[in-house]
Amino acid sequence: MDFLPVSLRVRDARVLLVGAGQVATRKARLLLRAGARLTVVAPRCSEELQALLNDSGGSWQRESYRASQLDGAILVVAATPLREVNEQVYRDASARQLPVNVVDAPDLCTFIFPAIVERTPLTIAISSGGSSPVLVRLLRRKIEAMVPAAYGSLALFAGRLRDVVKNAIPAQEPRRLFWEQVIEGAAGELVLAGEEQRAETRLRQQLEDTDALHRGEVYLLGAGPGDPDLMTFKAQRLLQSADVVLYDRLVAPGIVEMARRDAQRIYVGKARSAHAVPQQEINQMLLSLAQQGKRVVRLKGGDPFVFGRGGEEIELLAQHGIPFQVIPGITAANAAACYAGIPLTHRDYAQSVRFVAGHLKDDTPGHAWADFHSETETLVFYMGLVGLPVICEQLQRHGRAPQTPIALVERATSPAQRVLTGTLATMVDIVHREQPRAPTLIIVGDVVRLHSRLAWFGKRLPAD
Ligand code: SAH
């Protein structure tokens, strides 16, 4: 690390800025925002900068740079177009051990300005030590998108109630736990929703109810189809707050790794018809972990409420008054459709879409097949690989043409994704030949025709 990140209080302190061009104006704006008493030294100064200085009690000295102007300053920034002047400022400031920054000249800096993401009073600083401003800018953009705008309000809220909480919970560790619960729990969510008064009431209730500190919580998180980038921000945030993570076969290792390093990870994987841990036991496990005061995350592949038995898992929690949240995820149908270039609906081909379980509880697809005859409806079968012959046969028997297009998307969104296409008449043979591996999703309907034109994932660009 070449530069130590610190946050400097410059409010009402004298800061010298040598130069008054565009770059200097940007620095002036930043320094003034932090409350500096700014003096600009330059022979000429734009009206924009003059107005800025007027509005904020800063001043402009219409003269060339002299070392004596450094007197009383706590920081100096040089942003003139003249290298000699900038070097002179650097030498004079260094001789006085005064922190100095020469814009765009890392070798003439004893401090640098990081890129910042501002959610005042929360400030996130990013720096590459001058090596790659572009990388820093890209990273900043990512963080901008990740940190909700209302986090500033959350920081203010916490700051305002800091002493109240400190007096009520003097010991540090339980206090940290309390704040974590507030910020990531219902009170924090209320602040983010702009309901500060209700949030404060909630926080004060939690302070009085000390039992609440030891009460666990369960988050049922939709982990999406595999790629961690396809999770929601909220699911990622809650995952990182977990003490215990329960996950199964459908959840990609990269996602489980996003949990805190000290979080306990429990595999409750399910393989078809060989449940590693019976569902009831999972339900019971969630309950008892929460009762021990743990913050428990149950990761579900795709969406928890689409063929995920999420409903069953939280029913027991609801009965026992354990607080829980259910966070949606991108379900396999949406993921496979997008990554295979098969729109689930389309003005010309399909006006509705139906998600169907390819096998039922007792392993026989005993659907009301007669309902699936509409040519303008896309059918998506989950868990359909084993039942594929039955699906193809029954659909034809109940009115779908043998030429109806069908696609099988194998391991959607992963680097190993494969898309097999055919018709209701040919698909069984194709699958027999290609031997796709689970998980696979089946899409039936005219929309499948679009695949040949719209497929994009895994394809090389013509220029490659
Ligand atoms: N809750 C999950 C579905 C669980 S059922 C969701 O919303 O996606 C399991 C079935 O989902 C699998 O049999 C398969 O049909 C489908 N599936 C899940 N992930 C998949 C993937 N990456 N590619 C293709 N199908 C997938």
Q: Major sheet: size, sense and barrel closure?
A: 5 strands, parallel
Helical proportion? Answer: 25-40%
Mean model confidence by pLDDT: 91
What is the β-strand count? 19
What's the domain count?
A: 3
CATH homologous superfamily heading of the largest domain: Tetrapyrrole methylase, C-terminal domain
The name of the CATH topology of the largest domain is Methyltransferase, Cobalt-precorrin-4 Transmethylase, Domain 2
Describe what this molecule looks like in 3D.
This protein has 464 residues and is of the alpha/beta class. It folds into 3 domains: 14-113, NAD(P)-binding Rossmann-like Domain (Rossmann fold); 215-330, Cobalt-precorrin-4 Transmethylase, domain 1, CATH 3.40.1010.10; 333-461, Methyltransferase, Cobalt-precorrin-4 Transmethylase, Domain 2. 35% of the residues lie in helices and 19% in strands. The chain has helices spanning 22-33, 47-55, 83-95, 133-146, 151-160, 162-168, 172-184, 186-192, 196-208, 233-240, 253-256, 279-291, 310-319, 332-340, 388-397, 427-434, 451-454, and strands at residues 14-18, 37-41, 59-61, 75-78, 100-102, 115-119, 122-126, 217-222, 244-247, 264-267, 270-271, 274-275, 295-300, 324-327, 352-357, 377-382, 405-410, 418-423, 440-444. The strands form 5 sheets. A 5-stranded parallel sheet has the order 3-2-1-4-5, with helices on both faces. Strands 10-9-13-8-14 form a 5-stranded parallel sheet, with helices on both faces. The chain starts with 13 loop residues before the first strand and ends in a 10-residue tail after the last helix. The model has no long low-confidence stretch (mean pLDDT 91). The structure holds S-adenosyl-L-homocysteine (SAH). S-adenosyl-L-homocysteine is lined by residues 225-226, 250, 300-303, 306-308, 331-332, 336, 382-383, 409, 411-413, 439-441. Residues 225-226, 250, 300-303, 306-308, 331-332, 336, 382-383, 409, 411-413, 439-441 line the site of S-adenosyl-L-homocysteine (SAH).
